[in-house]
Structures are given as structure tokens and as C-alpha cells.
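I hope you will forgive my troubling you with a question about protein structure. The record follows directly beneath this note:
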Amino acid sequence: MSTSEAPPLDQLVDTARYPLSETDSADGEAVISRARHELSTLGCTVLPDFIRPSLRETLSRECSDIAPRAHFDVETVNVYNIAVDSALPEDHPGRRTFQRGNAFVARDRIPTDSLISRLYGDQVFQRFIARCFGLPRLHELADPLSGLVLNVVEPGMEHPWHFDTNEFTVSMLTQQAQAGGIFEYCPNIRSAHNERFGDVRDVLEGKGERLTRRLPLQPGDLQLFKGRYALHRVSPVRGEVARHSAIFAYSERPGIIGSVARTRQLFGRALPEHLAGEGRAVRGDRLLD
């Protein structure tokens, strides 16, 4: 699909159900009100069938075509993405390690005429997402690698329990796993002022059923998620089909670029922009990760 053939937003998204450009209408207000309520109470909301059925096969095929461009690296990690040999108390949840086997296709390896690129850069879409999160506006990341990525979890791999660095995440499943690959999360398991290590430890030890929700997703569903305070994972993928999901990364402030260490961890490389921006990150809380 060339840039000139890329469908306009109302042909890509089911705008009858999700009136992105008419958010002040009764239908638009209803969608946004539901999203805000679920984000406030559950930390997550799903807009099912966001992409029109006629384009879901194209969406899946485009992402499958670029999936081999992902940087694959199995790494030993903990839920806080800090060094696994950090000096921590014996019962600290950060001492428990996992094998992270998910992979990412960087933004500069995703065609600009793909459907996910078309959606990510659309200002109407961005304004709609901002309203759902109750924000005045959103900015695309200035990062040349991590603004828009495709997450790939191959059979036998998983994206283990972790917290996000960003307070919110926008993602879309583009290909289901044959089995497994379920998104699981623990809404509001911590806050900006309380790590609640005991609850986190219970989840990691398999004793956190009371805290955990499982989210069935279909290709084309749009997921809005507050992952800074919600422990979450993609369970191990089984069968012969990989799980693919597009991640649309935005920020409240312009000019955001990832750290050199984290960029190399995710993509196996860093660019001059990352080196130039090192040390300028501003944290909004004092949480461990």
C-alpha cells in the first residue's frame, strides 16, 4: 500500500461507533466517558473493533511482514527493569527473575505508509486519545526508534511481569497467538507513593488471583492502559503462531527520547539522538523503576 493509497481515517476506523472528529457529540461523549471511567477504576479500557473489519487482514499482513525486522534477545529481567544483582532485601519482589523473550520492531523499520503508521501520526486520533485520558494534548515521542513499535512474542516466549516507565500506553493487537499470549494485569497495585511490595510479591509467587484480571483481545481492538501503576504481562505464547501488537507511544511533554541503556536493551542499538539526550530525563515519581 503506497502513501497515496493509504485510507483516510474514517475508512480505517469505525467512526460510526467511535466518532473521533466529533467528540463533543452525544455519541462521542459517551465513548469518552466510558473510557475515562474504566481508566479511572480499572486502569484499562478496550475499544473493540476499532479498525474496520475490511482492513483487519491488511493490518495483520502488514505487521506480519515487518515482524522479522524485530530485535530478538532473551534477557534475564525483574519486574522493575533494574539490575538483577541489585542489593535488595531477601524477600524483595525485585529479586525474582524472569526470561524476557519478546522483541520489538523499531519505528524506523516500520513503513510510513502502513496502517499503524497512518493511525499513529493522525492528529484527530491523537486528540481523541488525549481526551480519553483526560489530557489537554499528546505528543509523538521525539525518539526515532520507540515512538511507534511492533511487539512480537514468538511461540515459547513471553513478556513477563513488569511496570511501564510511561504512565499510559496505547496499543492494538494485530495478530493473536494460537494459544496463550493473554494480557494479564493488576490494576492500581501500586501508587506514586506506595510500592506495595507485598502485593507484587504475591502475584509473582502465584498467590495474586484476587489482584489479577485477564483481558481477552481481538485483532483490531484498541487498548488504552495505565501501566505505570499496574503490574502486567503477556503470558507465554504456545502453538505455532506469534503474538503481534502495535504500541503507539505518546507523552504529555514534547521532545521525549529514551535512555541509551533502555534503547539498546529493546532495539540492540542507539542513535546519536539518544546519546545527545542522555541525562535529561525527568521523573514524575520516586518509584523503583
Q: What stands out?
A: The domain at 46-109+137-277 is CATH 2.60.120.620 (Jelly Rolls). The chain has one domain: 46-109+137-277.
